[in-house]
Specification:
CATH class of the largest domain in chain A: Alpha Beta
Number of strands of chain B: 0
Number of helices of chain B: 4
Number of domains of chain A: 3
CATH topology of the largest domain in chain A: Beta-lactamase
Strand content of chain B: under 5%
Distance between the termini of chain A: 140 Å
Radius of gyration of chain B: 38 Å
Mean pLDDT of chain B: 71
Low-confidence stretches of chain A: none
Oligomer: heterodimer
Structural class of chain A: alpha+beta
Order of helices and strands of chain B: HHHH
Chain lengths: 572, 140
């Protein structure tokens, strides 16, 4: 059947021309015509089908020949959207020495454009005859134009990106830096390396505030210069959610040239360095005594005689008084008094309490540089440990550890994980209550008293109701403590009646000068805190408060003088 | 003999060929234009990027502070310069000398503005009527 049809078709064409002209063969003529027509119709249908397909289907294929965009790493911005780090497209110059006509001449011309290149080295690298040699990375558009004008074969450009830190060294320890290939080496850049590379993630917003950071940085530098200190740390944290507003460690470095920075300036002191933080720990000790009902605020301690325990002697710097009430012990920062209070609480409770405050746990901050706290093991936690730890010696923690714990003293008893990210667009973090509202309230009053009448007078920024605690710690040296080198610290919260922010300022090894004979926290770190708070409070929308407002006075009132009869007894 | 329908078909063919090429060239041109625009877009995006970085760089608080110290006669905001405005609780000045100071200040501002505001203090309107007795007393 099939072969018959084929034969018939073939016969149509195999007929000779002569037969075609035959009048009685019109039938075959028509048949041929039909076959040709069908073939053409089929072809046209195919063409139009294709046409319809092309015109209907999306024309994404039309825009394929576009160069891919070089995006690089994502931007990092502060809490107000100010740019902190950005990748800029930049051109690097390389050579294919194999293709160069005259390496020496090329080198000569290139040195004229890039005066910082060394001619001998360049000539040597161009004469190798290899396939690839870097000439200069990150050249300016003008230099690119000049090189193009040379019109030499073998010189080529590679498009790339360079990380630019728009705020310079202001955030060097937080942001970290990247290497020449754009890999994060430290700080946020390292911690979020993969996130920052993925362009889908968009920009990374931090909780920091450029303006506050600048003020803390500026004032810290002034203080360091004033007291010829080795360095310093400044932390400003939101007291009610743990957002870090500013965090400075000095000396710092230029993140664009991190490879030439000294190890000291690369060292991040706020989360990596562990220190014995000294008297500011007394806040935790007093809160602990209050929380465990071990002492009452009316209790009075005899502080004239130093405590002798085995080879240690605990003494006070300026023993003016014989008897001190608990608030006075805090205000005047008495080591003897605090040690005695801590003994009444006991080592086991103290250990449990400090654990609860997170002093033994690693930090959760979004930085790769995290210091491990150092403290005596449970077996070695003697009464002497209890006493020394009560005033901040014998335990070494990072400044951020202390801020994480001490924020509970003022905010109603909650601790928060310090974070570098804005919390308002995240889920609320679990709240960890460590102190009762009442204890926290008392601690606020004590901190205000310290600023009003105690060791922290110089921190009193007018209108912002600062409360704080001074501290000075002798630096641990091999085999004991250094008498000459110390840390001066000041922990504060403002406004203390309803704290919004807490700050911790540390000066490393301040020296006395003509105006300030002492280098304790009250003389160095406290005035620094006062200056910083009076500058940052208006920016942080903290409303000024009248210090003499009777309501405020009443809110923060605390009787701290020891009962008259005890004082009288003591003078007998 | 040429049938008119043949002429018509031929013309149609010519037109369609002409139209086809017309469209083809147009598309080609548009293509080129799109590529050009895309390139330009890329360039502009890059420029925006650079300008944003430059803006952030020029607005470094440290730099602004340095410039402000050099060129502006401004100092930091002190707490006592900030006033919480709560109607009813505003006390403009509790002492006469404060009023004089306020008025001198106002006059200075007016003089510097060189406008036609009233200079005589008696014509100044005080909007706060809570403590009129404070406002009546005036130094001679």
């Amino acid at each position: 059947m099939k072969s018959a049809l084929l034969q018939r078709l073939l016969s149509i064409f195999t007929q000779s021309n002569l037969t075609l002209k035959a009048p009685n063969n019109t039938n075959i003529l028509y048949q041929r015509l039909y076959v040709v027509m069908i073939v053409f119709i089929c072809a046209f249908i195919l063409v139009s089908l294709k046409l319809i397909k092309v015109s209907i289907s999306d024309n994404a294929t039309l825009t394929h020949n576009l160069a891919p965009t070089i995006t690089g790493r994502n931007e990092i911005v502060d809490r107000n959207g100010t740019l902190l780090a950005v990748d800029l497209a930049i051109v690097s110059l390389y050579a294919t020495p194999k293709l160069l006509l005259d390496p020496a001449y090329t080198a000569d011309k290139l040195v004229k454009i890039f005066p910082e290149l060394k001619k001998d080295e360049l000539t040597k690298s161009l004469q190798t005859g290899k396939n690839f040699a870097w000439i200069k990375r990150n050249i300016t558009p003008k230099q690119q134009y000049q090189v193009n004008n040379l019109g030499m074969p073998g010189l080529e450009f590679e498009k790339g990106t360079k990380r630019i830190y728009t705020q310079g060294r202001l955030f060097s320890h937080i942001l970290g830096y990247v290497d020449t290939d754009g890999n994060g080496i430290a700080g946020i850049e390292k911690q979020f390396d993969t996130n920052l590379r993925d362009s889908k993630n968009g920009k990374l917003q931090l909780s920091l505030d450029v303006r506050v950071q600048n003020i803390v940085h500026d004032e810290l530098i002034k203080s360091i210069n004033e007291f010829s200190a080795k360095g310093g740390v400044g932390i400003v944290m939101d007291a009610n959610n743990g957002e870090i507003i500013s965090m400075v460690s000095l000396p710092d470095f230029d993140p664009h040239h991190a490879n030439v920075a000294t190890p000291e300036s690369l060292f991040n002191q706020f989360s990596l360095g562990v220190y014995e933080i000294g008297s500011i720990m007394k806040g935790l000790t007093i809160a602990m005594a209050m929380e465990t009902n071990s002492v009452s605020l009316r209790d009075v301690y005899y502080v004239k005689a130093p405590i002798k325990a085995s080879r240690f002697v605990i003494h006070d710097y300026k023993p003016k008084f014989s008897y001190l009430s608990v608030p006075q012990i805090f205000m005047h920062s008495s080591n003897i008094g605090t040690a005695m209070i801590s003994l009444e609480v006991g080592g086991a409770k103290q250990r449990k309490f400090l654990k609860q405050f997170g002093l033994f746990d690693p930090l959760q901050i979004e930085l790769p540089e995290k210091g491990q706290p150092m403290y005596p093991s449970e077996k070695n936690w003697s009464d002497i440990s209890t006493m020394t730890i009560s005033f901040g010696h014998g335990i070494a923690i990072t400044p951020l550890h202390f801020v994480r714990a001490a924020v509970a003293l003022v905010n109603g008893g909650y601790t928060y994980e310090p974070t570098l990210f804005k919390t308002d667009n995240q889920e609320p973090k679990p709240i960890n209550r460590v102190l009762s509202e009442e204890t926290s309230n008392t601690m606020r009053k004590l901190m205000r008293l310290t600023v009003e009448h105690g060791s922290g007078k110089k921190s009193d920024a007018k209108g912002y109701l600062v409360g704080g605690k001074t501290g000075s710690a002798e630096k641990a040296k091999r085999g004991g403590y250094s008498k000459s080198e110390k840390l001066s610290l000041f922990f504060s919260a403002f406004p203390i009646n309803n704290p919004r922010y807490v700050t911790l300022m540390i000066l490393d090894d301040p020296r006395p000068n003509a105006n300030t004979p002492y280098t304790g926290g009250g003389w160095t770190a406290a005035p620094l805190t006062g200056r910083i708070i009076s500058r940052i409070a208006p920016l942080l929308n903290v409303k000024p408060i009248d210090h003499d407002d009777p309501k405020i006075k009443q809110q923060l009132w605390l009787e701290f003088q020891p009962e008259a009869e005890i004082v009288e007894k003591s003078s007998l | 003999m040429i049938k008119p329908s043949y002429i018509l078909t031929l013309l149609l063919l010519c037109f369609s060929v002409f139209g086809l090429f017309q469209v083809k060239f147009k598309v080609q041109n548009l293509h080129r234009e799109v590529a050009e625009l895309q390139k330009q877009l890329e360039h502009e995006k890059n420029s925006i990027h650079v300008l944003k970085a430059e803006w952030a760089y020029l607005n470094q608080p440290e730099r602004l502070q340095r410039l402000a110290e050099k060129f502006l006669n401004l100092s930091e905001v002190r707490a006592e310069q900030i006033m919480l405005v709560k109607p009813g609780s505003i006390i403009i000045a509790q002492e006469t000398r404060n009023i004089v100071a306020i008025e001198t200040n106002n006059q200075l501002i007016r003089t510097s503005m060189n406008n036609s505001m009233p200079r005589k203090t008696s014509q100044v309107k005080w909007r706060y009527k809570e403590r009129p007795e404070v406002l009546v007393r005036r130094k001679k």
